[in-house]
């Protein structure tokens, strides 16, 4: 689905992404790991259109989408979430979800005046979809709560729900587990797995929690110094000597396996 070919992104003399190439297969949940400064988020931003690459290209379903803006990629089914959730804090959870679908008739004052029935029917359909998302994510108890009052984990669930309000082909998740307690993290993981298996979503996620990555992701790609260092199953990555040195730390090489995998 996504093919990244020799992407470079330089900021002056800093090579944040340095010749990264990878493939994200349709129907997969791909994990992207690496130490801080490895270029993971910069690569995400290039793929999602927030940054233009210095060189290289990105293909979506065989089409060159390099340098397209986020809203253009959004219309093609490529969505991303952020490490810090971007909710509309003064709107309810349900209203946040209903804001997502683009080109709603009610956004036009003229349409609202001249075609109120069309606007009302469209809004009812969007509300019904939002209710389906709320039920799927099991967040009915906060459906009418202001989004600004949610916990960090609930905001991450809301961000995931917003991707369900459009026909997403692939969703990029940036540290969905950051700042989330273990109970809610398990709930988020369950939702991602269900979306993948039941609704055919393709995911790529940046994450530091190896237990979470191991549960969800295959393959796992490790980046270091702006390039792809290794790719394989979670178990293969955890036992890869180069990854241990670059990401997990050289001190872990001589620790018992039980302690390393804890």
From TrEMBL:
One of its GO terms (molecular function) is ATP hydrolysis activity. GO terms for cellular component: plasma membrane. InterPro entries: AAA+_ATPase, ABC_AA/LPS_Transport, ABC_transporter-like_ATP-bd, ABC_transporter-like_CS, BCA_ABC_TP_C, P-loop_NTPase. Belongs to the ABC transporter superfamily. It comes from the Bacteria. Keywords: ATP-binding, Nucleotide-binding, Transport. Residues 2-250 form the ABC transporter domain. This is Branched-chain amino acid ABC transporter ATPase.
